[in-house]
Amino acid sequence: MQTSPSHGTYFMKINGTSFRSVWVDEKDLWSIHIFDQTRLPFSLDILRLTTVQDVAHAITSMQVRGAPLIGAVAAYGLALALRTDSSDTSLEQNAAMLAATRPTAINLRWALERMLNALRPIPPENRVSAAYTEAQHICDEDAAQNEAIGRHGLKLLQDIAGKKEKGQRLNILTHCNAGWIATVDWGTALAPIYMAHDLGLNVHVWVDETRPRNQGAALTAWELGSHGVPHTVITDNAGGHIMQHGQVDIVIVGTDRVTRNGDVANKIGTYLKALAAQDNKIPFWVALPSTTIDWRIADGIRDIPIEERAASEVTHVQGRMSDGKIGSVQITPDHSPAANPAFDVTPSRLVTGLITEKGCCPATENGLITLFPDHK
């Protein structure tokens, strides 16, 4: 069982202390802890979750977000549920309830299916301990996968840097947040950037604000700043402009689901960045652990369910007020309706390639099967 966040060697550090994004404290074994991402970047609050209902609320309210992290937290949520009732009925019902919290990210379903497969054969009286152990394995594997993604993506950045004049800035554009706060540790799209920065490459990141919830401005900028990575926050609509003017060398984004043919579902606005990148002949890469691949579907536009979130996320903006308090302000007329699709799908033809824990490959079925031949 993972214990105190300061025990162990993790990449993520806050004020010199190592953390993961979800953990079990050795002094509080029957709960889990996460960062409240809705409070960042203005307040670093740690939430203690003690019930499966706490976990479901944390996922739906986006106190915890990021496809890999959602899966890991949901796995622990099922363990919490079994503490109250470890019967077959409880196992199935709570897994179904957690699976319904977010429809687009495939890691959630993957993690819960893995937990069910591990726990169904075990007698109910032994399930709680087994559930905690399996959830910890999911976390450990996610951290290892993301570190491997970082190593493979680092080679792409080193290749680009090697073609520049010595010391010339390497400009990377990203969309939404795919750093360690969206995973258990390291992150996906940001992992290569952290590694490049730590090796002394002169990297600079253009951070899309990522409306309507501003995960780029709030989370990616906070992460990069905490690690000392040079970055600039831009509006979502500025990406094409800076690409046209030669200020972007590569785009790297994360993803919530990838189809077997390489279509990519990611935060709304990703598709437009891919179009701009193609028009300006800029490589567009997607970083993901293999748990994000949905081998069951091939047509992302047709088959990936797109979550429609509350209109209030569009009509209101959260921020820090002049008195220092965190609040929201309305930015639309009282009676104007708002639509809020949370994700879009980028067709594989616009994706230069995929960065996985097994290496990089074209965004095609053959490319993925080359790395993961068991799915042929």
UniProtKB/TrEMBL annotation:
<dbReference type="GO" id="GO:0019509">
    <property type="term" value="P:L-methionine salvage from methylthioadenosine"/>
</dbReference>
<keyword id="KW-0413">Isomerase</keyword>
<feature type="active site" description="Proton donor">
    <location>
        <position position="256"/>
    </location>
</feature>
<feature type="binding site">
    <location>
        <position position="215"/>
    </location>
    <ligand>
        <name>substrate</name>
    </ligand>
</feature>
<dbReference type="InterPro" id="IPR027363">
    <property type="entry name" value="M1Pi_N"/>
</dbReference>
<feature type="binding site">
    <location>
        <begin position="65"/>
        <end position="67"/>
    </location>
    <ligand>
        <name>substrate</name>
    </ligand>
</feature>
<feature type="binding site">
    <location>
        <begin position="266"/>
        <end position="267"/>
    </location>
    <ligand>
        <name>substrate</name>
    </ligand>
</feature>
<comment type="similarity">
    <text>Belongs to the EIF-2B alpha/beta/delta subunits family. MtnA subfamily.</text>
</comment>
<dbReference type="Pfam" id="PF01008">
    <property type="entry name" value="IF-2B"/>
</dbReference>
<dbReference type="InterPro" id="IPR005251">
    <property type="entry name" value="IF-M1Pi"/>
</dbReference>
<dbReference type="InterPro" id="IPR037171">
    <property type="entry name" value="NagB/RpiA_transferase-like"/>
</dbReference>
<dbReference type="InterPro" id="IPR000649">
    <property type="entry name" value="IF-2B-related"/>
</dbReference>
<dbReference type="InterPro" id="IPR011559">
    <property type="entry name" value="Initiation_fac_2B_a/b/d"/>
</dbReference>
<keyword id="KW-0028">Amino-acid biosynthesis</keyword>
<comment type="function">
    <text>Catalyzes the interconversion of methylthioribose-1-phosphate (MTR-1-P) into methylthioribulose-1-phosphate (MTRu-1-P). Also catalyzes the interconversion of 5-deoxyribose 1-phosphate and 5-deoxyribulose 1-phosphate. Part of a bifunctional DHAP-shunt salvage pathway for SAM by-products.</text>
</comment>
<feature type="binding site">
    <location>
        <position position="102"/>
    </location>
    <ligand>
        <name>substrate</name>
    </ligand>
</feature>
<keyword id="KW-0486">Methionine biosynthesis</keyword>
<comment type="pathway">
    <text>Amino-acid biosynthesis; L-methionine biosynthesis via salvage pathway; L-methionine from S-methyl-5-thio-alpha-D-ribose 1-phosphate: step 1/6.</text>
</comment>
<dbReference type="InterPro" id="IPR042529">
    <property type="entry name" value="IF_2B-like_C"/>
</dbReference>
<dbReference type="GO" id="GO:0046523">
    <property type="term" value="F:S-methyl-5-thioribose-1-phosphate isomerase activity"/>
</dbReference>
<feature type="site" description="Transition state stabilizer">
    <location>
        <position position="176"/>
    </location>
</feature>
<protein>
    <recommendedName>
        <fullName>Methylthioribose-1-phosphate isomerase</fullName>
        <ecNumber>5.3.1.23</ecNumber>
    </recommendedName>
</protein>
